[in-house]
Write a structure and sequence with these properties.
By secondary structure, the chain is α/β, with parallel strands linked by helices. It is built from eight helices and six strands. It has a single domain, classed as Decaprenyl diphosphate synthase-like (Undecaprenyl pyrophosphate synthetase, 3-Layer(aba) Sandwich). β3, α5 and β4 form a beta-alpha-beta unit.
Length: 285
């Protein structure tokens, strides 16, 4: 028996619309995978310790940093931009090839309107002010999330930054915007269902690789190290599929205070760990 025939050659309009939204979002990663690892892999620091190829950061603590200083929360977000600059500058020197920053979640729309508006303004400001320097330094911007649902101005500026830096390969900078892992999985499942209904895919052939190929991060390696600032021990709906075997490192340092020294501490801790991916420790360990 061959694969089951689709029930109809027509795809319901609602599913077609959802698939179109998913396709619109996918173009903000330039439609291509992250830059391949050069021969020999990432450069290790002195002592030959391993360096994480892909680092993802939950940038938490902006609001608390501001509150403790008697400042409005937006001041913390603005200070967080400086931390982004420091970390982006440090990554290539440390051998990190991909940096993913959790910038704005699908749940962040629930915050006070003034704070959301301020965050949207900062996004535009970042794209306009930073894109020239990022381009000169070989940083390629990609965006993960339901970008098509962002306000028009923000979407346009994001698209311009992505296009401007699309040929760079010194560092891949993924900005997770209007991102939520649950939403990402829903979008992936809708896209897969769309292919099934179109007769392009046999449901019996759907596996983990199929799902991974329909995520916003399709073509990228999974994160090796997930860092969370601000001291909270949770993933907050961030890269739940991709971070299944990532090493986690949590620091009480608020994001506006995070710098290269903290990043080096995280990498040093990563190098001390043995990644087993569900297996057993190496003999003698």
């Amino acid at each position: 028996m061959g694969p089951p025939e689709p029930r109809s050659g027509r795809i319901p309009a609602r599913i077609r619309r959802k698939a179109q939204v998913s396709e619109a979002n996918s173009r903000y990663t330039n439609g291509s995978p992250a830059t391949p690892v050069p021969a020999g892999g990432p450069q290790a620091p002195a002592g030959g310790r391993p360096v994480p190829r892909h680092v993802a950061i939950i940038m938490d603590g902006n609001g608390r940093w501001a509150t403790e200083r008697g400042l409005p929360r937006v001041a913390g977000h603005r200070a967080g931009i400086e931390a982004i600059r420091r970390v982006v500058k440090a990554c290539p020197d440390l051998g990190i090839e991909i940096l993913t920053l959790y910038a704005f979640s699908t749940e962040n729309w629930k915050r006070p309107r003034d704070e959301v508006n301020a965050l949207m303004d900062l996004l535009v400001e970042y794209c306009r002010k930073e894109v020239d320097e990022l381009d000169r330094n070989g940083v390629r911007i990609q965006v993960l999330g339901r970008v098509a649902e962002l306000p028009e101005l923000q979407r346009r500026e994001v698209e311009r930054a992505v296009e401007r830096t699309r040929h760079n390969n010194r560092l891949i900078l993924n900005l997770a915007l209007n991102y939520g892992s649950h939403a990402e999985l829903v979008d992936a499942f809708r896209a897969i269902l769309n292919r099934v209904l179109a007769g392009e895919l046999d449901p019996a052939q759907v596996n983990e690789e199929t799902i991974a190929a329909h995520l916003y991060t399709a073509g990228m390696p999974d994160p090796d190290l997930v860092i969370r600032t601000g001291g909270e021990y949770r993933l907050s709906n961030f890269l739940l599929w991709q971070a299944a075997y990532a090493e986690l490192w949590v620091t009480p340092v608020y994001w506006p205070e995070f710098d290269r020294c903290h990043l080096e501490q995280a990498i040093a801790e990563y190098a001390r760990r043995e990644r087993r991916f569900g297996g057993v420790p190496a003999r003698g360990r």
